[in-house]
Structure formats: structure tokens, C-alpha cells
Amino acid sequence: MREIVFVGAGVIEISTTSSQGRSFLLGIFGPGHVLGILRMLPGEPANYDYRAREHSVVVSLPCDALQQVLDANPALWASVARMALHQYRSAMHSVIIRRIGSASARVAMVLNLLAGTIGEKEDASIRLKVTQEDLASMLSTSRQTVSKELHALAARSLIDIDYTTLRIRDL
Questions:
Q1: Which residues pair with 142 in a beta bridge?
Q2: In terms of pTM, does the model score above 0.85?
Q3: Exposure check for the chain: N or C terminus, fewer CB within 10 A?
Q4: What pLDDT, in 10s, does the model give residues 51-86?
């Protein structure tokens, strides 16, 4: 069934599996995010996996039911279009950085994206509950490369590194 997922609370990750069976973490999202908007397109396959990383509250809405509501209230389509365009812009920015950016720029870009989706404000920093393995999967690189780049950012006092938590001071 095609459905859209609204994240009310908690943290949800989206992943996909390649034809060779390798899993790729595509993103991590928190409250207020709408996942799977592309499924509104007819024939769009449901080839993503969603997993709660902590206790979460989500609302799953069948695309056909949402389509009926939107068709009955055409003005609502403008909000959906704006949301879809915003997500498209973020996705394109991510693709560009991942393709042409240095490892340092790619790590900083993913940290910046995650700060906006799952970051928790703490005084003058933003806390991210994310592992180096998660970042490596999102960047399609090794954990060692991520570790090297994170330590370079920490040496510049831009982030603090804990076992499963990063604190962003300034990116």
C-alpha cells in the first residue's frame, strides 16, 4: 500500500537496499517531517524502509485517501507543492555536495542536514544522536573516513565527539 508518514514525535530513519543486498541509510528525520511524499505519484514503488530509532509517534496516511482530501480541497495542493519543492531543493543540494564535494564538505553537509531534522538545541550547541556508522552509510563511505573528518572538525573546535553523540558548536 502506498502511504505517507507524518512524524509526530521521535526519530525515524529511511533506508533502502541495493540489488546486491547492501543497505543504505538515506536520512534521519524528527518531529514535523513528512516522509514518502513521492508516493503520491501514481505507480511510485514503495522501495524504502522506515525504522524508529527511539520511541516515536507517527501517522500513516494512505495516499489514495490523502489524494481524495486534496482533490476535494484544491487550495491544499499548494501546501503540498511547497513542501515537495522544499524537499526537492534539499535533495538536490545533498546530491550535488555528495557528488562533487570533498569528504570534509560532505560530512559537514550531512551534519548540517541532521541538525535541522533531529538536532536538539543545548545552550550554544546542537546535539545529534548519530553514530559514525550512520554517517558513513549516509555518505556511502567508510567509517574511518567519517572518523577522520569528524576529528578534523573537532580539532577546529567546531564539534565535540562522544560515543553516540555529536555536539555541533559551529558549522
A1: none
A2: no
A3: N
A4: 999 999 999 999 889 999 999 998 999 988 888 888
Q: How confident is the model at residue 171 (pLDDT cuts 50, 70, 90)?
A: low
Express each pLDDT in 25-37 by its tens digit: 888 999 988 998 8
Phi-psi region of 59 (alpha: psi -120 to 50; beta: other; left: phi over 0): beta
Lay out the sheet containing 57-62: strands in order across.
34-35, 3-9, 57-62
How far apart are alpha carbons 140 and 134 in whole angstroms? Answer: 10
3-state secondary structure 97-135: HHHHCCHHHHHHHHHHHHHHHCCEEECCEEEEECCHHHH
Q: Backbone dihedral region of 131: left (phi > 0), alpha (psi from -120 to 50 degrees) or beta? A: beta
The closest of 16, 22, 86 to 49, measured between CA atoms, is 16
Cβ proximity of 159 and 150 under 8 Å: yes
Please report which residue ranges of the chain form alpha helices under DSSP H. 63-72, 75-100, 103-117, 132-139, 143-155
Edge-to-edge strands, sheet with 120-122: 120-122, 125-129, 165-168, 159-161
Instruction: Report how far residue 38's alpha carbon sits from residue 44's, in angstroms, rounded to the nearest whole number.
Output: 7
